[in-house]
Design a protein that fits this description.
By secondary structure, the chain is of the alpha+beta class. The chain contains 24 helices and 9 strands. Strands 5, 6, 7, 8 and 9 form a 5-stranded mixed sheet that branches. Strands 1-2-4-3 form a 4-stranded mixed sheet. Helix 1 packs across helix 2, helix 4 crosses helix 6 and helix 7 runs antiparallel to helix 8. The two termini are 33 Å apart.
Length: 617
């Protein structure tokens, strides 16, 4: 199904849900029943054919047609049985019990009693900044379900107890009452059909091909038809959390998760991996993560992260609504909260430190080879820094900016302001030097920061979106002895709107098809390519990667790229998520659209335009 058709069906389901919720749920149940009817019908047909053919063969009527019919009937019966008995993997992580964490399980029991929900059968801890609840089939599609709750250790460290309990109440809210049971059944069915669809892809038998054809027609329509139900379920779970812990607490938890999650991605992990410069053996991150999460986020960073989160609109790529929609549904203002002071790690009881040590050790084991490779890469970075430092007198502005960036790779606290100032002496309006200098100026020197941002705005239109964001973050941040400059804030907000329109046009160019229009071979230097390879090695599912340069009409001087990655062993949802992570986290010298190699574009198309891969595992 084309994306436009899928979006159209999602919108139809949303309208139907808004007009008559009960009728919409009945139509969802009926469409879900169609999938069961197909599988059960095939099962009965296969069994009936076997029951008719076997007596014929036992009576000595061995004919080729009967034998082929028996084989077809057995294949039909087996495929249908597989569909009904599809097994879904339990969540990953370390299981934790009530004996180990009585306070956590007491809190879960209180939430369960208040919302009259089913019991949680298994609780796991993992390393994600998230919490989730899953109902997995116990005996296939027609059997009961087992409830699994997964809690991320970083989330426990980031949120205070009331906000963390609001997150648990939200997750438990997915299972409450008749509506929750119906939504959970639809969710299990959706997972099962997706797993069956993926499991039959490589099967070339005639019966499997017929089932594949049905699933290609049925599954996208089932996903679209149930989208509004899943979206409603998120709002209802938020409402449950607000009712149990308070709407302000639930909204503060949502906002703090957005801001601290952005900080972990952009700040913490980069700093942690920089430790490989001096340490050849991996260092566990969770002890330092706990200490850093106990501090308040930088005010300018928090303001910018919140603004970006509020900008994101609810889309069909995710059943979770955007932050703005969730905050408005809770009837609370979209503002930064008072930050959590101390996490909820005490819910793990006296074993909390042991869990941190256990996760640190596991992280070191899991990332030992990546750490070794990153240590080797940072050794090369240090050598490059030495070369650039030796030529300071002759370096041009580009080389000075590169030197500053690489020094920050080795030490995020390195003093690099003199390098940016020297670069500006040699090229007065160098965009990279201006951008770097802004981030080095002291926080209490607002005037100098805004002057530097004004110079950057005038110097390069491709930097205007970042410039306006930085200026607004600065103007929104309260500083001692400084009054709010309403006129400047209004001016920069209008500038951001214009810059955002230009960025949207540029992204449409980058992501639009045909993918290979206005592309050339990548322009990375040998050192930049080695840097890209050092980053990709940390994404274990990536087997190969190809890179091309995309020339944008909107920003002719901007370096923009298409990255094609081969991701064997992942389903489409995981591939999509990994590609979005690559777009956010790779440090290429310009924006990148990440796509997985497959049907569109094909590997043949990629090799024709990109030639040799830039990375092979």
């Amino acid at each position: 199904m084309e994306q436009a058709d899928f979006v159209h069906l999602v919108r139809l389901s949303e309208h139907a849900s808004a007009e008559n919720s009960r009728a919409y749920r009945r139509s969802v149940a009926a469409f879900a029943a169609l999938g069961y009817a197909w599988v059960l019908g095939c099962l009965v047909l296969g069994a009936a054919l076997v029951a008719w053919v076997v007596p014929q063969l036992l009576q000595g009527r061995w004919r080729l047609g009967l034998v082929l019919l028996l084989l077809t009937a057995l294949a039909l019966f087996w495929t249908s049985l597989r569909a009904l008995w599809v097994r879904l993997d339990a969540p990953g992580g370390a299981e934790i019990t009530a004996v180990e964490a009585p306070a956590l399980f007491d809190a879960l029991e209180r939430i369960r009693r208040k919302i009259k929900g089913p019991p949680i059968h298994r609780v796991y801890l993992n390393d994600e900044f998230n919490a989730s609840i899953q109902q997995l089939p116990r005996y296939g599609l027609l059997g009961g379900a087992v409830n699994h709750l997964t809690i991320g250790l970083p989330l426990l460290m980031a949120l205070d107890r009331p906000r963390f309990l609001a997150v648990l109440a939200h997750e438990y809210g997915h299972l409450r009452g008749d509506h929750g049971r119906f939504a959970a059944w639809i969710y299990r069915t959706r997972l099962a059909w997706m797993r069956l669809h993926q499991g039959l892809r490589d099967d070339t038998g005639p019966v499997a091909l017929a089932t594949q054809a049905f699933m290609r027609w049925y599954f996208p329509r089932f996903a679209a038809k149930t989208f509004a139900l899943a979206r409603q379920d998120e709002y209802e779970a938020d409402r449950i959390a607000g009712k149990l812990l308070g709407r302000d607490v639930a909204a503060a938890a949502l906002t703090e998760i957005e801001v601290r999650g952005a900080w972990l991605q952009t700040e913490f992990w980069a700093r942690h991996w920089s430790k490989a410069a001096d340490r050849p053996l991996p260092v566990g991150p969770y002890g330092s993560m706990r200490r850093r999460l106990a501090r308040m986020p930088d005010a300018a960073f928090a303001n910018d992260a919140l603004r970006q989160a509020l900008r994101r609109i609810s889309s069909v790529d995710d059943t979770h609504p955007g932050l703005r929609d969730r905050i408005e549904a809770l009837d609370t203002p979209p503002i930064l909260p008072d930050w959590s002071r101390g996490g909820a790690l005490d819910l793990l009881g006296s074993d909390a430190k042991e869990w941190l040590a256990r996760f640190d050790k596991q992280w070191c084991r899991d990332h030992a080879s990546e750490w070794k490779l990153h240590h080797a890469w940072l050794t090369r970075v240090r050598e490059r820094v030495q070369v650039l430092s030796a030529g300071m007198a002759q370096n041009n502005a580009n080389e000075l900016v590169e030197l500053a960036r690489l020094k920050r790779h080795l030490d995020p606290r390195a003093v690099v302001r003199p390098l940016y100032e020297l670069a500006l002496e040699r090229s007065a309006e160098h965009p990279g030097a201006l951008r770097g200098l802004v981030q080095c100026l002291p926080e209490d020197d607002r005037e100098a920061r805004l002057q530097c941002l004004q110079r950057l705005w005038d110097a390069d239109d491709a930097e205007r979106w970042w410039t306006a964001r930085a200026a607004l973050a600065e103007l929104e941040t309260p500083r001692p002895g400084m009054e709010h400059d309403a006129a400047a804030f209004k001016q920069w907000r209008k500038r951001l709107e214009r810059a955002q329109e230009a960025e949207d046009r540029a992204w449409e160019e980058l992501s639009g098809s045909p993918f290979f229009s206005r592309v050339t071979r990548h322009d990375l230097s040998a050192f930049e390519q080695a840097e890209l390879q050092a980053e990709l090695i940390r994404y274990l599912p990536v087997a190969q990667a190809w890179l091309v340069r995309k020339h944008l009409r909107e920003f002719p001087r901007r370096r923009a790229y298409l990255l094609f990655v081969e991701l064997p062993g992942l389903d489409d949802e995981d591939r999509f998520d990994l590609c979005r992570r690559l777009e956010r986290q790779l440090s290429l010298p310009g924006p990148v659209l990440a796509l997985w190699a497959g049907e569109s574009p094909t590997q043949e198309d990629i090799r024709r335009h990109a030639a040799d891969p830039v990375f092979s595992r």
